[in-house]
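Obj: model holo form, ligand = s-citryldethia Coenzyme A.
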Amino acid sequence: ESGYITIDSGYKNTGATKSAITFLDGEKGILHYRGYSIEDLAEKATFLEVAYLLIYGDLPTAEQYSKFENAIRRHTIVNEDMRKIFEGFPVNAHPMGTLSSLISAMSAFYPESYDDKGPDQTDLHIIRLLAKLPTIATWSYKKSQGHPVNYPQNQLDYCSNFLHMMFALPVEKYEVDPVVSSALNKLLILHADHEQNCSTSTVRLVGSSHANLFSSISAGIGALWGPLHGGANQEVIEMLEAIKADGGDVGKYVEMAKNAKTTGFRLFGFGHRVYKNFDPRAKIIKKAAYDVLEKLGVNDPVLEIAKGLEEAALNDEYFIARKLYPNVDFYSGIIYRALGIPTNMFTVMFAMGRLPGWIAQWKEMRTQKEPIGRPRQIYTGSTLRPFVPIEQR
Ligand code: SDX
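Output (holo structure tokens):
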């Protein structure tokens, strides 16, 4: 400590704000959005209802919902010049990189977003983001398959529209399987907000300078991409595949994780800054994984590896002492894979789910007129020293 400044690296014990959006109890494994339990919402709501709830504070009436859904439908098409920007990316560009670039590019297509007219003037930007992110998200997949992109079909609901854009081909009719769209709906709801996590704190910090909503959300996508955060869902499947290829010896990987200092290996999908008990989302996703794979008749050996790894870790002193439980990313990739989503798009799916939460938190920060985020530091560099000309160095 120096004077009045205390360092709290990673903000482990620092509250950044007061918020009415999401309630977490890490000890009890409780998660509520605006007072509604995640268990209720995941079972009974649509993702757009939850998006409305997070952003506007209450579940919509039938009239508010239809207005919201229709406004989104009217903005699902993306400016064709955005596609030209996208076409410039190499085919192996990571979908999170293209997504954060194109969401940032939206500010260029809607220059009125540069004017800081305050949070109440952003409704159209909010609709554009919710409407266009799914459309943009599918372009990487279509390009990777050498297939033409699909345009949104506005008679479809939000999740079915995304799935249609992802998997429809011009050569045959594509019917969205309701098992698949309802599994996607549940996953998006479970990812929709999570109080002051890394990417949400990023969106708030960028927005605190009164930067526009598109560039704030683009920054959040960048933070989410990190393997310690949303990028973990891709890491989990790659880890499970590696364990399967290595003979399925989960104990060996638990041991490697326990010697992280020397092996540098972490069990992705385990551990959480706040949850020191089971992540309530992981419980729901684990059950949904068994349910969806059975309904789709998918037998994925990686699911049994995940279950074996979870059991091995939960009975190991190292994990018990550190209260490391499976988190939201541990089982989600197994469902995404069963739905046909490619591994390198798992974190894009996380971003699509988290988008309404980012928007709600940004709007709350601006509505509460919070000051620009500007932390201090403790200086540990050189004391004053005279300039030395290069010939004397
Ligand atoms: C998400 O914040 C959110 O809410 C995030 C999120 C959201 O919805 O927005 O919930 C989404 O990001 C979930 C987390 C996904 N990340 C991973 O699965 C990556 C693996 N997990 C870890 O890297 C870690 O657990 C974090 C990043 C999630 C939390 O890190 P912390 O709170 O900074 O904890 P830490 O790194 O200080 O670990 C505490 C101890 C350490 O051991 P010691 O130094 O005390 O001996 O636990 C160990 C760590 O080495 N540890 C692990 C581990 N996670 C922590 N050891 C092995 N495997 C792991 N996964």
